[in-house]
Amino acid sequence: MEILVLYYSRHGATAELARHVARGIAEVEGVAARVRTVPDVAIAGTQAHPAPPDEGPPCVERADLRDCAGLVMGSPTRFGNMAAPLKHFLDGTAAEWISGALAGKPAAVFTSTATMHGGQETTLISMMLPLIHHGML
After folding, report:
1. Residue 51: pLDDT above 70?
2. CA-CA distance, 68 to 134, in Å (whole number)?
3. What is the DSSP track for 42-98?
4. Which of 4, 36, 99, 126 is exposed most, by the fewest CB atoms within 10 A?
């Protein structure tokens, strides 16, 4: 059984949290973590570099969503919302919504920010809304 740990991180803090989450998942017998990231988004709204990153985990593919037993998603806080690259990826998952690929699967979210009152609570909610819409638990 694999849990998808999907995140976006520009400066490394969220990537570090994703590594901790994956390590915790790996401690559960019979469960493995599949760590993936999303590419940056260019100004025109397209992915800036959909090729695999030079370092770190590969970029997520739709098959990762279909194949996972659960999803843990992370993003830095951007004015109380998830980062645009993660939102851009989620906005392109209509086929998974139509097919019910994520329905009934467990989900969790995490975030990081540089300040104590940086909008963490609303960022977590902004990440959960599309997952709930997909029918995740």
Report:
1. no
2. 14
3. -TTSSBS--SPPSSSSPBP-HHHHHH-SEEEEEEE-BTTB--HHHHHHHHT-HHHHH
4. 99
